[in-house]
Specification:
Number of strands of chain A: 14
Shape of chain A: globular
CATH superfamily of the largest domain in chain A: Medium-chain alcohol dehydrogenases, catalytic domain
Number of helices of chain A: 12
Strand order of the largest sheet of chain A: 6-7-3-4-5-8
Distance between the termini of chain A: 47 Å
Largest sheet of chain A: 6 strands, antiparallel
Strand content of chain A: 15-25%
CATH architecture of the largest domain in chain A: Alpha-Beta Complex
Radius of gyration of chain A: 20 Å
Oligomer: homodimer
Structural class of chain A: alpha/beta
CATH topology of the largest domain in chain A: Quinone Oxidoreductase, Chain A, domain 1
Helix content of chain A: 25-40%
Number of domains of chain A: 2
CATH class of the largest domain in chain A: Alpha Beta
């Protein structure tokens, strides 16, 4: 592929600063709603902020919703995208396809209700309602505006049998169960699996995916008794244990016999060493938290002389959207954990 | 294992702040030279600072050697370990075994010349000469002092057929070739491999390890014509190409046909996207640079809809020290690239 064509495919032509970098690395994108021949314009109806990003913004502003709203608005206006400069993360959005360029390969049609499955950190975004309908107190942000998809972006047409907010919440984390399924499949015969943050969205879907992939013993690690009760009722794990994921020795003690695969779905920093300590020699850790520190993971494993394979959770695995929605539909325990997080 | 025993094995009893965390997560360790029954005391003769750490310190102080020396001394005095608070990385050290506790499992004997293969970020360290013999202008730091090894630390006895400074430089990066060998072995029949930062220590050893593991096409990516000439002369790669590793589109263009395995050995931030773009669908990227950003890697792959497996380079793989020294001994091209970096 010629380099110019690769550039357009990836959206490099939308980068304002610094020129010639990829959209995610850019400090500022051009969110002009007029589309090129291979682009798609979405009429945005809702943003779903990345959990680590929302948590950081909320903590930085002492939980003051108005201040959080102003901060998000400021980021989008200055950067042309919702890219939290502190956490480096974004989230995703839903909306309706408004216009499709004649050479777009995405197969979308005007009027399709869609969720973008590429990060907000690289999606040109314009907000036109000042976020007036959002109280700044939750990750889901009702809004109006426009977003641009490139030729190599990914968007899922929203199903008509799942409420939109639920579908959004599921699709936001659909990379985790898809990657978990793949890792468990490759880990041999009935590998034991522990999930940190098991009562959350990505955690419960990852547990269900691991079960589907014929995992052996399934351990759900949660942070308190309330979550433990909910996860036990959901029936997704063989063992449910309570531990502070940022306390490595507590995690190791709670999990007990080290497992073959550990999936990290907590959205707080400092879970790297517990995950490594909970994993058996020769096992695999998959990090899905955007709060993961690369150096803490690499040096932690080395420092503990732990022969574990550590994966950077890739948000994209082919078929991830369909897999996650399917797990949601046919797993009552997943629905029981996710629905209350959405219906507010 | 009882939790108290696990604590001692990992060195938790040496943590001063905050109490109860693992040594790498600690802000301050106790470098008291008196050892416990399962500990080992090393008489330190030399530190080898992590490349990313030294680069950051040097840049922060405008290349002023005296200021860099004062900064390193300040870090060690305040933290009880050489743990760069900005990069999160450390390095390793060499010395001579001075005292071995009666219950140490490491098999060391007083008088053994050793290199520690666990990071300085978790090794209790005391410097007693004020770094008076170091000019602050290179990663290798001659010094005097003491360091402590725990039961689960790793130290390699230095070979007598390789100069000490060379062995130190090789052992510092020995995780990279060992992990590269493993990944290439698992990647199927004669996978093509690209190494970013191929003329550096970990880069050239990784190329040699990939060749040993029966890789197919081997591409060495370097930053300038000088490195290209040196790498071509070393004969370690089939193709040697020049590209700025932080320019993803330049890396993709230089590598050409995407490869099955990409190994990232550059010590500057921003190489994540180029590595992903250079890698074929279904391929693997191994990140060895401590300058790697977890979120840039995860979101970059997602944003480019790239189905690649991304590994956090684990500094520990069983047998890594012997493998790296062996590659150095029997690969003239590796010696030709590493020797000039050490003999200064």
């Amino acid at each position: 592929m010629a380099i110019d064509a690769l550039h357009r495919t990836l959206g490099v032509h939308r980068v304002l600063e610094p020129p010639g970098v990829l959209p995610q690395a850019a400090t500022r994108l051009d969110p002009d709603p007029r589309i090129g021949p291979d682009e798609v314009r979405i009429a945005v109806s809702r943003l779903n902020l990345d959990a680590a990003s929302f948590r950081q913004l909320s903590e930085a502003h002492g939980g003051d919703g108005d201040a959080v709203r102003a901060a998000v608005l400021g980021i989008v206006e200055s950067r042309g995208k919702m890219h939290n400069p502190v956490t480096g993360s974004g989230g995703m959005l839903v909306g309706v396809v408004e216009e499709v360029g004649p050479r777009s390969p995405l197969g979308l049609v005007p009027g399709d209700p869609v969720a973008t499955l590429v990060s907000l950190t690289l999606t040109p975004l314009r907000i036109t309602d000042g976020l007036a309908r959002w109280d700044g107190r939750g990750e889901q942000v009702p809004t109006s505006g426009t977003a641009i998809l490139f030729a190599r972006s990914i968007a899922a047409v929203l199903p008509d049998d799942v409420p939109q907010q639920v579908a959004l919440a599921v699709l936001d984390v659909c990379g985790a169960p898809a990657a978990t399924e793949r890792v468990v499949h490759r880990a041999g015969h009935r590998p034991s699996v522990a999930v940190l943050g098991a009562a959350g969205k990505s955690g419960c879907l990852s547990l269900a995916a691991a079960r589907d992939a014929r995992a052996g013993r399934l351990v759900g690690v949660v942070r308190d008794a309330t979550e433990a009760t909910a996860l036990r009722a959901a029936g997704l794990a063989d063992d449910v244990v309570v531990a502070d994921a940022t306390d490595p020795l507590a995690v190791a003690a709670a999990v007990g016999e080290p497992v073959d695969v550990t999936v990290v779905c907590v959205d707080v920093p400092g879970a790297e060493h517990g995950a490594v300590l909970a994993t058996a020699e020769g096992g695999t850790v998959v990090f899905f938290s955007m709060a993961t520190s690369f150096s803490a993971a690499a040096l932690g494993a080395e420092g503990m002389a732990a022969d574990v394979t550590m994966l950077v959770g890739n948000g994209y695995t082919p078929g991830h959207a369909a897999l996650a929605l399917d797990l949601y539909r046919r797993t009552p325990g997943v629905r029981a954990l996710i629905d209350p997080r959405v219906a507010r």
